Amino acid sequence: MGSDGRGSNEASSHVPSISIYQNAGHVTGILQQLFEEGVLTATEWQKSEEAADVLQRTTKLGASAEIGADVPFLAKAAGTFTGSRDKQRTENDKQSNTLRQQYVYSHSYYLHLVLRTLREKGRIKTVTSGSDASELRPGDLIEFQASFRADEIGAILDIASPDFVGAIVERQVRGEMIKVFDQDLTFDQRQNLIEKYKAKAEMQRDFAKSITQAVRVDFRSDATQEYFGTFGPESDLVTAVVICESDQFLVADKDRLLDGAFTVFGKVSASIETDVPLLHRNKLLYRINSEFVDAVFEQLQSAGTDAVEQGNNPVFQNTTGEQLLNTRFAARLNGPSFKVVPIAISL
Description:
Elements: H1 5-11, E1 19-22, H2 24-35, E2 42-67, E3 79-104, H3 107-121, E4 125-126, H4 130-133, E5 141-150, H5 152-159, H6 162-178, H7 187-219, E6 224-231, E7 238-245, E8 261-277, H8 290-309, H9 321-324, E9 332-346
Parallel strand pairs: 4-5, 7-9
Antiparallel strand pairs: 1-9, 2-3, 5-6, 5-8, 6-7, 8-9
C-alpha cells in the first residue's frame, strides 16, 4: 500500500471504471485490514540533476639570453639564462536542477487497490445467477452486474407526501360540503353545516397527514435508499436488494442507478430467500397479511380497468384498462432474493 503510485498503475491492466456510488469508509477500512497499516494519502518524489563545466587554461613563458655585456650587478658573469613561468586557471560552472512531484491518492485508487488485492487472493465471489446466489452466506464479499429498479413502496411514499394525502382528504370532505348549497335550508342552518364541514375537513386532513408521516418515518428513510437489482438467465433469475446510503452517491441524481446495468461490489447481509413480503421490514405494517394487500390492489386494478373499458372516449376503444393504467402493487418480492450492503457501484 505504501508503494509508489506510478508503479501500481503501470503494473495494472484493468479496465478503468466510473463509480456512481462509493462508500469511502468501507473502502479505506478494508484497505487497512488487508495491509495492516495506515492509509497513505500522498507521496513526494524528488529528482536532482547537477551539471559541471570545467575549463582549464595553461600559459608557459620561456627566454634564453647570452650575457656578456656590461651588467653591473652580475659582474660580467658569462653564461646562459633561461626562465619559465606556468600559469593555470580553472573555471567551474555548475548548474543544479531539482524536480519535485507529489502524488495524492484518491478513493478511486483505494478501491482499485482493494479490488485487485481481493481478486488476487480469491476473496471475491462473482455471482451471475440464482444458483450462484444460493451458496452465499452473510459476510461474503461479492461482485455482480444487474439492471436496477426502484422500490415501489419508496416511490409511492415519495409521491404520497403528508401534505399531498392531507390535501386529498380535505378535498373529499369539502366536496361533500358543496352539497349543502343544494339543500332547502335557512341561512343559519346552512352556515352551521358549513362550519361543521370545515372543522371536519381540517380534522381529517391533520389526521391523514399525521398517519402518513408516521408510516413514512417507519418505512421510508431519507438516509437510505433501496434498489432491486435483477440478473441471471431467464430460467435462473435472482434479485439483489441493494441498500444504499444516500450521502455516498457520487452523482447528484440518485436515480441514475435505474438507467442501465451496473456492477456492484459489496457484502452479503442476508442469505437468499423466496417471495419475501415487502412489508416485513416495517415495524407497523408487517402485521398486515400479504394476501390481503394483493387482494386490495387486484380490486383497484379491476375497478380501473372497468372504468376505462366502459368509457365512451374513442381514445380508449383499442386500449384495455390494464394496458392504460397498471395499479397493481406487489406485496412481496417474487422469486429468490438476497440482501447486500454495497461498497461501490460502478459502470
